[in-house]
Design goal:
Radius of gyration: 16 Å
Helix content: 40-55%
Bound molecules: iron/sulfur cluster
Number of domains: 1
Mean pLDDT: 81
Structural class: alpha/beta
Strand order of the largest sheet: 2-1-3-4
Length: 205
């Protein structure tokens, strides 16, 4: 069954755009709104997965997670990062290796959206800045996507951080290994864990 989301409706999308515009002058309120919308999306996706377990997974990381100046080609895989681990992408690589999941780094938002449209995954797990999260929800509303904002940046689009605990929780959930995780507080954007096992994606292109 098709994933149902309010982001598929023009009125909802335009209402959110208007609300963001109204909140923009008030400090962090716009980001709080985006986080609430993201949390609500994640709950919707978790509910969807309880009935429709995912077999194909697409994990998308933005390019700003990659260390500035690093020459590694990470577009098709994170093998070099596994050996290096000098930035967050190395930690992401280790998690993907542990869960045997292919990760892709999208250098532009439109490339990430194109990946979603061409690969047609059952589930997307992605992290991005607040603005790009909304862009993703607007651009590919038909695909269930578990989303989280980036945790920090040295400056705009430079050396961004990923909530690795959140990511590990999502990967464990997808791979049906959540019971193997050590006890720790669930990150705020995790949502509920379904009881059903979700198979991992076979592989990339
Ligand atoms: S982990 Fe190493 S190879 Fe991978 S992006 Fe970071 S610095 Fe580059």
């Amino acid at each position: 069954m098709k994933f149902r989301s309010p982001w598929q409706g023009t009125l909802f999308r335009e209402s959110v755009a208007m609300l963001r515009w109204l909140l923009r002058p008030f400090g962090n309120l716009e980001n709080h709104l985006v986080e609430r919308l993201t949390l609500s999306q994640n709950r919707r996706v978790i509910k969807h997965l309880q009935n429709f377990p995912a077999e194909k997974l697409l994990l998308i990381m933005p390019r700003c997670v990659k260390k500035t100046g690093c020459q590694a080609d990470v577009k098709n895989g994170l093998e070099e990062c596994l050996q290096c681990r000098r930035c967050t992408l190395g930690d992401v690589a280790q998690l993907c290796d542990h869960f045997d999941i292919a990760a892709l780094v999208a250098f532009r938002s439109h490339i990430a959206f194109e990946m979603a449209r061409t690969r047609k995954p059952d589930l997307i797990i992605a992290t991005a800045c607040h603005d790009r999260l909304i862009k993703a929800l607007r651009a590919v509303p038909d695909y269930p996507a578990l989303l989280a904002p980036l945790t920090a940046m040295d400056k705009m689009c430079v050396n961004a951080g990923v909530d690795l605990l959140w990511l590990e929780e999502q990967l464990a959930l997808v791979c049906g290994q959540q019971n193997d995780l050590p006890q720790r507080p669930i990150p705020s954007l995790t949502g509920e864990l379904p009881g059903q096992q979700i198979a991992r994606m076979a592989d990339g292109p």
